[in-house]
Design a protein that fits this description.
Elements: H1 3-23, H2 29-43, H3 55-67, H4 78-105, H5 111-118, H6 123-132, H7 137-163, H8 182-201, H9 207-221, H10 231-246, H11 254-286, H12 290-297, H13 302-311, H14 316-341
Helix pairs in contact: 1-2, 1-10, 2-10, 3-8, 3-9, 3-10, 3-13, 4-5, 4-11, 4-14, 5-6, 5-7, 6-7, 7-11, 8-9, 11-12, 12-13, 12-14, 13-14
Protein name: Regulator of aidB expression
InterPro entries: AbrB_dup, AbrB_fam
Transmembrane segments: 81-103, 148-165, 233-250, 262-288, 324-341
Length: 346
């Protein structure tokens, strides 16, 4: 089967899984349904391909959606945000240390691979840094792919039960294709394209998401446009994102993944527990709602955690800002810390 046919089959399964997940009211169904379906098919060796090459074209839609949720009331909370950013440092430090111990002692990874597997940064960044330092890039990629999938899944399910995650299908929040006018579509498209290009030119992290979000926020705050992108486009973007996460397991042996997944579950649950404790402390100090504080600290993907914030009706700008800062911090300090501690890592 050629690549186009494999991609077509993968997308067809992802769309069907999204509708199935929605029908059973799974939290964040349009992303989680495709994610689980493609992960299972990938490990089973089915002839599917993930839409990874499509992802950069749909993430800006999510960014524009997030920007539409920004409002002027957020600026009064910037003082609390600063304290939350300071708290991000110990959250990352404690989580990374706990992850390193488990990967090193339980999975018996070599020190380099364990170090970059435990860093709560982006998959691609840790993969490249770890490979350059001499680590096993396949194990690093597997560790981060597993962490992201488990983090998104556990948070969506647990917090869905605790706080009520919207399925994204309520008619009250639904934006039809006819709701935006021609002028609105033009402005929304400009936000997506201009934001993405500008963010890449500035070498910003999560450029496909951050640039469109910022430009969209400016456009909505200025009153140039007052509607978000149509819901069907946002849902399709989520389907592509979920399928991309699940397809990261393509070519991996199910036995190897399952062997790595057991300690990864411990790492993920431990990180979530640490994060939740810090989030409760932040809530006590600042009054930031605990779900919002938690989503800002949880070590999932930037886009995935921001989507959870959308579903839980929390401040998307806060959550995405915290995760972009997380990635910047990890990229900035991971290599220097590793160089400093390389001879001491055991």
């Amino acid at each position: 089967m050629n690549v186009a046919a494999r991609l077509g089959l993968g997308l067809s399964v992802a769309i069907a899984a999204g509708f199935a997940a929605y029908s059973v009211r799974m939290p964040l169904p349009w992303m989680m349904g495709p994610m689980f379906a493609l992960a299972v098919l990938s490990l089973a060796g089915a002839p599917v391909a993930g839409p990874g090459k499509i992802r950069p074209f749909v993430v800006p839609i999510i960014g524009v959606m997030m920007g539409s949720r920004v409002n002027s009331d957020m600026f009064s909370q910037l003082g609390d945000w600063v304290l939350a950013m300071v708290g991000l440092v110990p959250v990352l430090g404690v989580s990374a240390l706990a992850g390193y111990v488990i990967y090193r002692k339980v999975l018996r990874m070599d020190p380099v691979t364990a170090f970059f597997s435990a860093m709560p940064g982006g998959l691609n960044e840790m993969y490249m840094l770890g490979a350059a330092a001499g680590g096993d890039e396949r194990q690093i990629a597997l560790a981060h792919a597993t962490r992201i999938m488990l983090t998104v899944s556990l948070i969506a399910v647990v917090f869905g039960l605790m706080y009520g995650v919207s399925t994204g299908g309520g008619r009250g929040n639904w934006v039809t294709l006819s709701d935006p006018g021609l002028r609105d579509y033009i402005i929304l498209a400009i936000c997506a394209v201009l934001g993405k290009v500008a963010a890449h030119k500035l070498h910003l992290p999560a450029a496909d998401l951050m640039g469109p979000m910022v430009i969209s926020a400016v456009a909505h705050l200025a009153g140039w446009v007052q509607v978000p992108p149509p819901s069907v486009l946002v849902n399709m973007a989520q389907i592509v994102m979920g399928a991309t996460i699940g397809a990261r397991f393509l070519g991996m042996q199910a036995r190897a993944v399952l062997r790595a997944m057991v300690p990864s579950i411990f790492v993920t649950v431990l990180m979530i527990g640490i994060t939740y404790l810090f989030a409760l402390a932040l809530t006590a100090l600042t009054g930031i709602p605990s779900p919002q504080a938690f989503l800002g600290y949880a070590a999932g993907g930037v886009t995935e955690m921001s989507l959870l914030a959308l579903a839980m009706n929390e401040e998307v700008a806060y959550v995405s800002t915290m995760h972009i800062l997380r990635i910047i911090l990890i990229i900035a300090v991971a290599q220097p810390i590793f160089t400093l501690l390389r001879n001491r890592l055991r």
